[in-house]
Write a structure and sequence with these properties.
Chain lengths: 428, 246
């Protein structure tokens, strides 16, 4: 009997961008097992050359539709670092809120639209609209709320216009903020229902573990998202301008995206990395969710990244309400951004839904971009996805082809990869 | 009655336009109720070649992508380009203007043979396109309007007047009076002048109106002390490909 299995998943579905999984099991041995990134490269760093300082965030936002807020904020912070611009407390708070809005939107999209169908054995969320209508409507409701938050703070849900170098071009009103604050409070109940749904499906997430390094931003006084130092579960913290010593980008022949490695062959970034490094600073209600799933730091099951996202959904909602209360206490001042254009170089990091994101720019005295470098979370995860596949497939090689296929896809999906992001450039 | 079969595809892009389709939220359920989605890689598993309408996001940036687009064209009775990248070439065309040695450093490095690229272009530079939904990203209401029109067998109306018209209706202060520059006078409306309303200026993401008064726009920009390079920079952000084509 021929037990050879050839698995060639061309353009894995329900992820952002184009990637293939290529597996060959021959005579009971895994002969080939590869995560291939085939997205068309886009050369953003080359595109930025010569563009003005106020255009750079507008352009880098277009690296990714799903994480456009994160790219915008990382870009603004890097430009501000390069020109030594300081921003107001109000700006920082509203940016943190905006980042929460994106994390909520992205995590809910991933969990509800992209992951849930796997756990319920259907090809997409569309059939669930008939079989699990109540839950689907709940996912949509939460997704819409997150998007409303982005609209209110950023101007629109994708490619925000309001955040600019030095601050915001337009502020929300007290009334608008209060309204979203109320909706968030009400939605806490909905998240509990969603969480119960995932709890009932917990067994569908494979029990797979592999020791690896986790990297995320860490801050002393809050769950690190908008600011902090780079930290690793293998020990050590570094300031953001030392980022290239962490990422060590390299090229592999079968991929149009760069890979990265630090202390081991690969490392992981994203919700699970943040959870593992910053658990203590999560909101108590978020910790409760993680306990209900038996998720504790340091967890080394990549499939649990999904649950870490769920934990972060709760954290982002709770922390958003806290930030809003804080802003509302003092009222909203109509501050205007003030920027003095000067030459300089600066780097910034921010935690976006899929992990730590770095932007670095250099400007000449006219405020024209002469150097740009962006290192995207998914690039940092590609190596880890590959290593996970290499460890996972031999463990399940005796199962049916369909089962292996689904498990491999679920692994890639658990990382919530953003492939078009990760092929933003080549050769620097 | 059999539902119209539709499919979504993407090339070099941020997938933000397809995200706007998902962002239709509750209305998305109505859309997927009215049509039969046979392919939407970003959101569903499975794929079929049997479709009537293809929505395509992204620019064509490498020769090997042309075959995929041509294949989509042969299956689709109606091919709709989604967003700036697909309709104009958009931001992707910025790389077309980099000095050759600089681009070469990126593209034709020592491992050049593994990675192909060529000047970015809109879909219509490769295959005939039936309809274009402009914007970066597309406006989800406009997308829903186009779907509705297609299902009713009508041709959707995309505005052919400049953003200034909508900007006036939004009662914004003119951007030029705030000492900023703006592409609004030559850019196709339909966005509700959203960027200006949100405190920014028009970047030109929806492309030119059919008969743009380009000379006048150049004059306006020059009047506001912008040099030739600055003016070119503004025109090139989204509409660089048309400049090359001319």
């Amino acid at each position: 009997m021929n037990n050879d299995k050839v698995i060639q998943l061309h353009h894995v579905t329900r992820i952002e961008g184009h990637g293939n999984i290529d597996i060959l099991i021959k005579d009971g041995r895994v002969e080939r097992c590869q995560w291939q990134v085939v997205e068309a490269p886009r050369f953003f760093e080359a595109m930025l050359r010569g563009r003005k300082w106020y255009e750079v965030a507008h352009i880098t936002s277009r690296i990714c539709g799903i994480c456009s807020i994160g790219h915008t904020l990382a870009s603004l912070k890097a430009t501000e670092a390069a020109m030594r611009v300081t921003v107001s407390e109000q700006t920082e708070k509203v940016r943190k809120l905006l980042l929460h809005a994106e994390n909520l939107q992205s995590h809910i999209l991933h969990l509800g639209y992209l992951v849930l169908p796997d756990l319920l054995n259907v090809p997409s969320v569309i059939p669930l609209a008939a079989t699990h209508r109540e839950q689907v409507l709940l996912v949509i409701k939460l997704h819409r709320l997150a998007n409303e938050m982005s609209d209110l703070l950023g101007g629109r849900t994708t490619h925000p216009q309001r955040p600019v170098v030095g601050g915001f071009a337009r502020w929300p009103t007290v009334g608008e903020l209060e309204k979203v604050r109320r909706k968030l409070e009400e939605a806490m109940e909905d998240v509990e229902i969603l969480s119960d749904l995932f709890k009932s499906l917990r067994d569908k997430l494979p029990q797979f573990t592999r020791e690896t390094e986790f990297i995320a931003l860490t801050a002393s006084d809050e769950y690190g998202l908008y600011d902090g130092n780079i930290a690793s579960t293998d020990g050590g913290t570094w300031s953001v301008d030392q980022y290239k010593g962490i990422t060590n980008e390299y090229l592999v022949p079968h991929s149009t995206a760069k890979f990265t490695k630090h202390k081991r062959d690969s490392y992981m970034v994203g919700a699970l990395a943040r959870f593992n490094l910053n658990y203590d600073l999560l909101a108590p209600r978020a910790k409760e969710i993680s306990k209900a799933f038996g998720l504790r730091p340091i967890n080394v099951n990549p499939f649990m990244n999904n649950i870490a996202q769920l934990v972060e959904v709760v954290h982002s909602m709770v922390d958003s309400m806290k930030l809003m209360d804080d802003i509302l206490k003092g009222g909203i001042k109509n501050e205007k951004p003030a920027v003095t254009v000067k030459a300089g170089r600066g780097a910034a990091a921010i935690e976006v839904p899929r992990g730590i994101l770095f932007h670095e720019y250099e400007y000449n005295k006219d405020g024209e971009c002469v150097y740009a470098n962006c290192i995207i979370p998914t690039n940092q995860n590609h190596g880890n996805i590959q290593k996970d596949l290499e460890a996972l497939i031999p463990q399940i090689q005796d199962r049916s082809k369909e089962e292996i296929e689904l498990t491999a896809e679920m692994l890639v999906r658990a990382y919530d990869p953003c492939v078009s992001c990760s092929t933003h450039c080549l050769f620097l | 009655m059999e539902k119209t079969k539709v499919a979504f595809f993407d090339f070099a892009s941020c997938e933000g336009c397809q995200l706007q389709v998902i962002n239709l939220e509750e209305d998305l359920l109505q859309v997927v109720g009215a049509v039969d989605v046979v392919s939407f890689r970003e959101a569903m598993k499975g794929h079929a070649n049997d479709y009537h309408v293809a929505f395509v996001e992204g620019s064509i940036t490498r020769r090997s992508d042309e075959a995929r687009l041509k294949d989509i064209r042969t299956h689709a009775k109606v091919l709709v380009a989604l967003g700036s990248c697909a309709t104009l070439g958009g931001i992707n065309c910025l790389k077309n203007f980099q000095e050759q040695d600089y681009v070469r450093k990126f593209v034709y490095g020592n491992k050049a043979s593994q990675y192909e690229t060529y000047p970015a272009r809109p879909l219509r530079a490769v295959v005939p396109v039936d309809l274009q939904i402009p914007g970066c990203p597309i406006n989800r209401k406009e997308f829903a309007m186009v779907v509705k029109a297609l299902l009713m067998g009508k041709r959707p109306e995309i505005p052919n007047y400049p953003v200034c018209v909508e900007c006036k209706m939004a009662e914004n202060i003119c951007v030029f009076d705030k000492d900023m520059t703006c592409m609004g006078p030559v850019t196709r409306a339909g966005c509700g002048a959203c960027c200006i309303t949100e405190g920014s200026f028009c970047w030109g993401c929806r492309g030119f109106v059919d008969d743009p008064n380009v000379d006048s726009q150049r004059e306006i920009l020059a009047k506001h002390q912008l040099g030739v390079q600055d003016i070119l920079r503004q025109f090139r952000l989204y509409t660089g490909f048309s400049e090359v084509a001319k």
